[in-house]
Amino acid sequence: MAAVLYHPYAALALPEGEGRETFEAVCAACHGVNLIERSSGYTHEEWDFLISTMIELSDAPARQDEILGYLAEHFPPSDNRAATPADGPLSVQFEEWKVPTLGQRSRDPVEAPDGSIWWVGQWLDILGRIDPETGEMEEFELPPGARPHSVNIGPDGAAWYTGNRNATMGRFDPQTGEITEYPMPDEAARDPHTAEFAENGILWFTLQQSNMIGRLDPETGEVQLATSPREGSRPYGLKIAADGTVWASCNGANCLLRVDPESMEVSEIALPEAGTTVRRLDIDEDGIIWWVNSGLGRLGRYDPDSGDIQEWDSPSGPDSHPYAIAVFDGAVWYNESGVRPDMLVRFDPEAESFQSWPIPSGPVHAGILRHMRTTLDGEALLIHQTGTNHIGRVTVENSGSTPSRPSIRNQRD
């Protein structure tokens, strides 16, 4: 099954050649063909696998051969967006699961108390669950047009998702399958985006294009909204500090946002350099805010007590577009989404040193990691690759003195 949405990205002047029209007709049914420019190019066999993660063409072998021949000829492997790996002493293991329904843009995995891993399929209104011990997966249909952007497991054991296109927050009861939707109280609030539960059970969330922060009380169903003080700041990632303060990143401006959990007053922390945009952030045990400077290719640190701000250049440079971020294993982890492969990067705050690994998607490196979180025991990192419909888990294997390559365990291909 493949997505049936069309995404009107900027046009790409595809080279002439046999198979071009077939490629455009099949692939543009789901996404703009200009996405091909974001890849590093692949061999015939690699294109074959990559397409198999997006759409099923085995029942149309002639069409499949035509598309693969065109792609392999005109978009072979290249280093046009090559990453700059950073060597180091640690070894990691990647575990992967390819989700059942293709073309869904699977993303934002989160662990439930029973050890299951949940995700959302943004383009096809899907909520999914993996049993990582057996590899068994289930998928559940969400209301048409919800376009879920993220999912969290609430204190009540339910899966709460953000209805990014139908202006709702949603609750899925795993026991009954019942779905409850909580619509936004303001028509200007169009796109719930990323959410986190506070210790008191309140669910906080961002609305990127609406330029708002929201809160939902699951006990009453009441939704309240607050607008960012800077127009076009586009609140994106969101985390909650130990003292209850809500922090959000600005994907449209050089700022972080601090939200008072009682009054919902939103204040801005301006970041130093124009061109800075922040996809996501996380908070360490000392209350330090770590954030990715997506616009300038850096990792940032903000101390709320002193106001001190520091930044470090990411290994792959200013066009690396850091995206997801998580504090894990005594370090700060993020990815470089603007290069190929999509690199998982570890930053050691004490040594101020980097190490990075290419994120696999089966036998190829493709897709983008957009959000990552740790498992509940803090022993693993949950990741994904949206472009290839893979959900993943990362563990650190050892800390020897010799740099080592990652090991890969495919749970489902």
Automatic annotation (TrEMBL):
Pfam families assigned to the protein according to its UniProt record, in alphabetical order: Vgb_lyase
Compositionally biased spans, kind Polar residues: 396-413
Coiled coil: none
Domain of life: Bacteria
Disordered, as annotated region: 393-413
UniProt-listed PANTHER family: VIRGINIAMYCIN B LYASE
UniProt-recorded name of the protein: Cytochrome C
Organism: Billgrantia ethanolica
